[in-house]
User: Fold this.
Amino acid sequence: MANKQTIPRPEVPASIEAPVGEEVVLHVRASGWQVYVCQAGTEQKPAWTLKGPLAELHDTDGKLIGTHYAGPTWKHQDGSEVKGKLVSKADAPDANAISWLLLTVTGHAGNGILSTVTSIQRISTEGGQPPQGGCDGSKLAAETSVPYSADYYFYAPAR
Assistant:
């Protein structure tokens, strides 16, 4: 892969910058749902709580190349998979969109493009915010899915 094009780092708030010494190895567009469940939240008051994402991952040409689901986990069609953990977040420029995130990878499976990934950014989010209202004592355990889309950038140590 000597002629592999480098993917430029996106411009993001300082709070979610990927670590120095890492380079982008994959950029995908996710589209799907943020799934919320009605459950007792703070002070045992019912609230919509994130259960997890359920999305398809598409390359920059729009081809389906993977999935994203609770964990949070990203699985590439080449069999490689990563799980992540939140490091930091930044408000999305659109108040109706879910936060932008920086995650660190906590686990790998399979061999492929995600095998060396150490950090993930979620940016350019659209939608996905929990519903307003509709979660009360009579709706405990109810689930709802809110459409969302986002760009994910996967980083690995620079070669």
In short: The chain has one domain: 25-157. The chain has a mean pLDDT of 94.
